[in-house]
Design goal:
By secondary structure, the chain is α+β, with helices and mostly antiparallel strands. Helix content is about 25%, strand content about 30%. It contains seven helices and 15 strands.
Length: about 280
């Protein structure tokens, strides 16, 4: 199951994103990547097939500090596990996106983009969404508006996070059948598939409901429900320490694995079943 981490802050967040990926390794994955908007407004990325350790080595060799970024661990569905198919995906060196789950109607959207002359670099359903969003922001929409408009054209079950280098104080996320949580900081905010990814930087979280879209900035956040209406979601304070989060309330890992089997099955199905159908490619 793929993993998402995003951040918008005043400080550099590249190492925060990388540590978040390490804490999502339990999900299983075959490639990893990170994209950053640096302080000059440039959009950069590094992607590697294999473990997060390989990505970490590449980032150490080619540092990409910046206050806005996304990171991802991918389990291949559409497209082989290659660097070209690894996330984050770009559109016109402006929009970057990471995505969990399956876009069920991506083939028809892909055909339409190709007919419009868009050059696609990967075999993924994710890149298709990046181009839909870019088309909207290029026409003058805000990133939030662009994501909301793109979601209306998507079928499937997914979570996604998006940044635009020309809107460098914003991360937009959406939950449709795959979990997503906001991490609350002071002058900085985060997004992840699992709160455990963010425990090194915060213990205050907002869990998105099904259908929610969130706009994060350094100053705060706005949530909109599936109908596009403003929504309030409670802030939850986690009592888990960074170390205790891995074992939770259990005495040892074997006990944890036994008791979490129902949750593990539910997590396996999440993102692979849409409202109306089973997403076969997800299996």
């Amino acid at each position: 199951m793929c993993g998402i981490v995003g951040a918008v802050a005043q400080r550099d967040v590249d190492q925060i994103l990388l540590e978040g990926l390490r804490r999502l390794e339990y999900r299983g994955y075959d490639s990893a990547g990170i994209a950053m908007v640096d302080r000059s407004g440039g959009l950069k990325r590094i992607r590697r097939v294999g473990k997060v350790a390989s990505l970490s080595e590449a980032l150490e060799a080619h540092p990409m500090p910046g206050p806005l970024g996304l990171a991802h661990t991918r389990w291949a569905t559409h497209g082989a596990p290659t660097e070209q198919n690894a996330h984050p995906h770009f559109s016109h060196q402006r929009v970057a996106i990471v995505h969990n789950g399956i876009i069920e109607n991506f083939a028809s959207l892909r055909e339409q983009l190709l007919a419009d002359g868009v050059e696609l670099e990967s075999e993924t359903d994710t890149e298709v969404v990046a181009h839909l969003i870019h088309s909207a922001v290029d026409a003058g929409q805000s990133l939030l508006e662009a994501v909301q408009g793109a979601l209306e054209r998507l079928d499937g079950a997914y979570a996604l996070a998006v940044i635009d280098r020309l809107q460098p104080d914003v991360v937009v996320g959406a939950r449709r059948g795959s979990p997503l949580v906001i991490g609350i900081g002071i002058g900085e905010h985060f997004l992840a598939s699992d709160a455990a990814a963010l425990l090194p930087v915060t213990q205050r979280f907002v869990y998105l409901n099904e259908g929610d879209v969130v706009e994060l900035t350094r100053a705060g956040w706005r949530i909109f429900d599936a109908a596009g209406e403003p929504a309030d979601r409670p802030v939850v304070t986690s009592r888990l320490s960074v170390d205790a989060a891995e074992k939770g309330r259990y005495r040892h890992y074997m006990q944890k694995e036994i008791h979490e089997q129902p949750e593990a099955i539910a997590n396996t199905l999440e993102g692979r079943i849409s409202e109306h159908s089973v997403l076969e490619a997800g299996f």
